[in-house]
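Q: I'm writing up a methods section and want to include an example of the input and output format. Could you take the sequence below and give the corresponding predicted structure tokens, formatted cleanly so I can copy it straight into the document?
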Amino acid sequence: MKIFAVLLIALFTSFATFAVDLRTNYAAKAMGSLSQPNSQPENITDGQVKVTVPDGQGGRFIGGEFTSVFGVKRNHLAHLLADNTLDPAWNPNPDGMVDSLVVNGNSLYVLGKFNIIAGQYRHGMANLNTTNAQVKPWNPNANDIVRTIVVTGNIIYVGGDFTYIGGATRNKIAALDATTGLATPWNPAASHTVNTIAVNGTKLYAGGTYVSIGGATRTNIAAVDTGTGQATNWNPNPDVGVVNSIAVSGNTVYIGGYFHQIGGALRQHLAAVDATTGLATNWNPSPSGYVNTIAVSGKTIYAGGIFTSIGGSMRSYIAAIDSSTGLATNWNPSVNNTVDAIAVHGNTVYVAGPFSAIGGAMRTTLAALSASSGLATSWNPNPDFAARAIAISGNLVYVGGDFTNIGGAMRSKIAALDANTGLATSWNPNANNTASTIAVHVNTVYVGGSFNKIAGQTRNYIGAIEADCITPATPTISSSGPTTFCTGGSVTLTAAAGFTYLWSNNASTQSINVSTAGNYTVRTIANGCTSAISAATVVTVNTPPTTPTINASGPTTFCSGGSVTLTAPAGFSYLWSTTETSQSINVTAGGSYTVRTIANGCTSATSAATVVTVNTPPTTPTINAGGPTTFCTGGSVTLSAPAGFTYLWSTTETSQSINVTAGGSYTVRTISNGCTSAVSAPTVVTVNTPPTTPTITAGGPTTFCSGGSVTLTAPAGFTYLWSTNETGQSINVTAG
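A: Here is the clean output for your methods example:
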């Protein structure tokens, strides 16, 4: 802990990130010279030198566990000049080990196990001037109480009772440079106390007890331009009293305090006002007494103060109000005295005030309540006097007030408590009077109150202290799906919520999308403290097989009844377009066939298609005879097959028609697209042999007188055709 050297905020986007990098020798390379661990100059110290870093002038800074250099007393940190002699004037004299150093310009950032360095209280971290070894302070030095602090980027907005702060006259409200602590030119100059500030974009809402601010008449609340410091036209104009608390949610400004009318409507002590018009909305919880504090969480508005009824229900000092209806929810911790501060973190509502019982348990001025039930949790720091302010950062609850003992330890007015145990950490700024407001930004705790000394330094009413931290538990990585996948796939790896992050691939988001193989780890960071490295999540990315080629065992065009075997490369699993999964498939049907190979769960691209064509043979042909198929020797008949094919006759002839002169059984097959029909029905051709030449036998002389006759006879066993056209075996001839 230390009065914080705010230069780090300007130099680094996040001091938390810087602190992580410094402790583990990461990305600080781009910022300046980085410490080199375990570097041991040549026997010049009486103990271990853990780090050494060039000073940019030929010399070097060394840090470690030594107490002397070249026999001269130097505790843990020293500067060696370019000629390797000890710098006699540079001696920050830390009271504990130094283990990391970074040089950036004229700043030397130091980390270690010290509490005092250069005569200043700095808990384990300091920013030293490389020339004179002095700690760089942040000291706005207000002349009266600071009641509220809001941090926005490099600007610290403060309100209170002061008239001088940051080296300039500033009435009740100011903007301070986070690096120098000096007041910026912004100067709304409120006429009286500013109790509360809320910043939303270019508007700063200020509440208190004033009658003018930003150059305009405004009663107790106003919106001031963050650029010009002038009051805007927004003017809810409450009637009397005081504004104690402001919370902005979307286009609604919630206002708590003591008033009866605001935004042009009767609203008692708590109101919702349109951020554009300044007019009150219909939301009207109407508490019976004044409101000290407001906290917004989703659709719930938590209000604390001095009331016994609110939102249409009996509620003592604290209530949860529905942001839509203005009615009290069932949440009812039933506290026995005033509530001064509320802070919500997750499902926990932290409450401070002068009560002794809340949420069904005895709790002295500080409690943690379940946001679901309203019951007190086991968290019980038990301060001895009033707690007045609460700020939450990661796993720490910062508390300010009037106490001298809290969380089981002596802590004066301000402490850091473990959010789980309620015990005080070793962080101990030890303010000498009330700490009434706290704001945490990155690794700096800004404190306002009525003190004039804090962290061992004179700081009037306001100070900036290095934040404490509890090392986060070692994170566990969860994955959105399998961590082994194929090229082109991805998986989302996620760490626990509520931290900043440093992944092994240098990403800083809660989740990362991973598409490349490797071992992925993460560290979580809270308030500059870094967890141990998580167990590695191994992501394996398998390369799909190359696009396969199909090999055919034979022709891929064939006739019905034929087949071909298609084969993919060996050594894989397979998925054919037929849904078959063997290396080879036997194909009997026409179609386009593809295959994909599979290895390690990864599937190849689809192969080029192998087209199989299956042709249908012609129908069984019918032979057409050109005449009788039975005839005598010397005769013939023409046999013809259907047109449009090629042919194969049983005679081996291949023409469409054949001339047949010999008896026999004749068939034909037609051929189309290489496919042969079934054999036709046979056509039988019969060729008969004629009888031998007959001999006529005369039944008498063949010469005779008129009136005579002779019988002529042919051989028996035939039919006959005589020259007289007679057809009997014998004829009677009477004339020549």
